[in-house]
Amino acid sequence: MDFFDRQWSTYRAVVDHDLMQHRALTAALSQAIKAWLAARPAGAPRARMVDLGCGDLAVMAPLLRGLPLGSYLGVDLSAPVLPRAAAALGPVPYPCQWRQQDLLAWAEAEPGPDAVDLLHSAFAIHHLSDDDKARFLRLCRRHLAPNGLFLWADVFRPPGEDRLAYVARYVGRIRSGWGVLAPEQQQPVIDHLSQFDLPPDRDAIRYAAEACGWQWQWLWQGDHQAEALAVLTAA
Ligand SMILES: C[S@@+](CC[C@H](N)C(=O)[O-])C[C@H]1O[C@@H](n2cnc3c(N)ncnc32)[C@H](O)[C@@H]1O
């Protein structure tokens, strides 16, 4: 197994054991998307969806297969996940595209003629620095159709908790509550989050979003003051 497969299989184990509460999150996401689709005016063109940091779609594929989309674009920094995502999704009655790209670069690009109706990102944006998160929020706003929806699932810090305290708390949660994973499976998660995770302060990121024209609402909160789902719409 190469480095990518080892890392990815650890993430798969985390998801399969629901250690980040993907089940409850996906149920909230599904409800939000279906309610939004149902409220679209009759005769509106089918929604164009973009998924930033789509990963292998192991979690999202069943939901995506049932959505009456106009198109789907899966974007991920990692090229090897894209064929896996395509295979997990399987045949769907709308065109799909797969693109290896940084999500910030996607936001920075000039918007094409077709605005995005449904933007989704799960557990990817927290890898950006705080300045880049704010830049991302400002730039991706230009890509969204006027009545579009941006669903952002991620890890967030409680207001006032600094990154070191967050990491220590998350590591404690893994060591005490993730016993279903062997220590040698826990350690890569701990190493990864200690090095690369930059979860935003939930109040600060909300103010940053509102300052660049978003309206922010929390849709779902996990049980651990970390995982959460926000919905952003044009203010
Ligand atoms: C933790 S996985 C989440 C995958 C999927 N969204 C899910 O919820 O199961 C994070 C994914 O985001 C991708 N990613 C991380 N940083 C990224 C970036 N700057 N631009 C695009 N993709 C990124 C990773 O390659 C990985 O596939």
Question: In terms of topology, how is this protein built?
Answer:
Elements: H1 3-16, H2 22-38, E1 48-52, H3 61-65, E2 71-76, H4 81-89, E3 96-100, H5 103-108, E4 116-122, H6 130-140, E5 144-155, H7 163-177, H8 183-196, H9 202-211, E6 214-221, E7 227-234
Parallel strand pairs: 1-2, 1-4, 2-3, 4-5
Antiparallel strand pairs: 5-7, 6-7
Helix pairs in contact: 7-8
The structure holds S-adenosylmethionine.
Explained architecture:
The protein is of the alpha/beta class and 235 residues long. It has a single domain (3-234), classed as 3-Layer(aba) Sandwich (Rossmann fold). Helices cover 43% and strands 22% of the residues. It is built from nine helices and seven strands, in the order ααβαβαβαβαβαααββ. A seven-stranded mixed beta sheet has the order 3-2-1-4-5-7-6, with helices on both faces. Strand 4 (116-122), helix 6 (130-140) and strand 5 form a beta-alpha-beta unit. The protein is globular and about 55 Å long. The mean pLDDT is 95. Bound molecules: S-adenosylmethionine. S-adenosylmethionine binds at residues 11, 53-55, 59, 75-78, 81, 102-104, 122-124, 127.
**The CATH H-level homologous superfamily:** Vaccinia Virus protein VP39
Low-confidence stretches: none
The CA-CA distance between the termini, in Å, is 47 Å
Order of helices and strands: HHEHEHEHEHEHHHEE
Could you tell me the CATH topology label: Rossmann fold
* Number of DSSP-assigned strands: 7
Q: How helical, in percent, are the residues?
A: 40-55%
Give the distinct bound molecules. Answer: S-adenosylmethionine
Shape: globular
What's the total helix number? Answer: 9
Question: Radius of gyration over alpha carbons?
Answer: 17 Å
InterPro entries: Methyltransf_12 (IPR013217), SAM-dependent_MTases_sf (IPR029063)
Domain Methyltransferase type: 50-150
Pfam family, one: Methyltransf_12
EC number: 2.1.-.-
